[in-house]
Amino acid sequence: MRTDDWRSYHRADGRRPSPLLAWPGIMDWVELVAPSAAVLALLLVLAVIVQSFRHGRAIRKLEARLAEAGGAAEPASLERLSELSQRAAKESRADERRIGWKPVLGFVAVVAVIGVGIAGAWWVLRGDDGSATQADTTTTEEQTPQQQPDPAVVPVTPPPLEAQAKAAYEVSVLNASGVPLAAADRVMPLVVAQGYQRGTIGDAPDGTEDLAKSFVMYADGEEALGFNLASDLGVDRAIPLDGVTPDQIGNADAVVMIGVDLAS
Question: Can you tell me the distance from the alpha carbon of 244 to that of 49, in angstroms, rounded to the nearest whole number?
Fold first, then answer.
């Protein structure tokens, strides 16, 4: 059953809503017609005001003629009042036939066309399929700043070490993989083979024995050393020293925390 079929919609109390409200697109049509209907209603009010003004002008003409015919102090006869009233009515009808509703209707037509044009332009710009919303979303995504790279990720080409040779750097190895002798028999020989100075060997200070991926920690100011050591061992992360003490790593310039990837 299609989810846009109003017959498939139900309210929380089990009853179906009104078809006019649930039918797809009906509210869009209401939004389109409402501005034009408001403009037309305003024009009708203006037309009524204009017509009332014209009738008021005819009455004032009649009063002026009565004053001229009978004087301010002499009341006019009923016959004279009737005659003047009929004459004023004839002149009013003649004026209406001569002028008619053409100016008012023309004004109404012009404003109606403008209103429909504005409503149509709004409809097109809004987009029936939500394209305007999609454009706004795209603009917002474009303005979102790009995510900064993780500084712990080892670059493909590590920065070169200073003039000091690798043998000048002491590297300790801590086993967090749970694999016995992984530090002494497997990883420390790799460290020494790469030219670094042998440091202390031990287990992870927090007792971790299931670390999945190995990482390198480096002393303050030794980022280049950390990245080069990680690259030499095939490790992809290097971070500043954290969670270890000199009693655990000695005077090491860098520490390799062994995970299952290096131990196996």
Answer: 89
Round the average pLDDT of the chain to a whole number and report it: 75
Contacts of 131 (CB under 8 A, 6+ apart): none
Q: By the 8 A CB rule, do 18 and 94 touch?
A: no
Higher pLDDT among residues 248 and 87, named by residue: 248
CA gap 198, 172 in Å, rounded: 7
Helix 78-99 × helix 26-70 angle, to 10°: 140
Give residues with Cβ within 8 angstroms of 81, minimum separation 6.
66
Instruction: Give me the residue label for tokens 């179906």.
Output: 16
Which residues does 37 contact at the CB level (< 8 Å), separation at least 6?
A: none
Which of the following CATH numbers is that of domain 166-263: 3.30.2380.10, 3.30.70.2390, 1.10.150.130, 3.30.70.60?
A: 3.30.70.2390
Report field, pTM of the whole predicted structure over 0.70: no
DSSP letters spanning 184-250: IIIIHHHHHHTTPEEEEEEE-TT------S-EEEE-TT-HHHHHHHHHHHT--BEEE--S--HHHHT
Structure token pair of residue 66: 């009565």
**Sequence ranges of the domains in the chain:** 6-143, 166-263
How many beta carbons lie within 10 A of that of residue 215, not counting itself?
A: 21
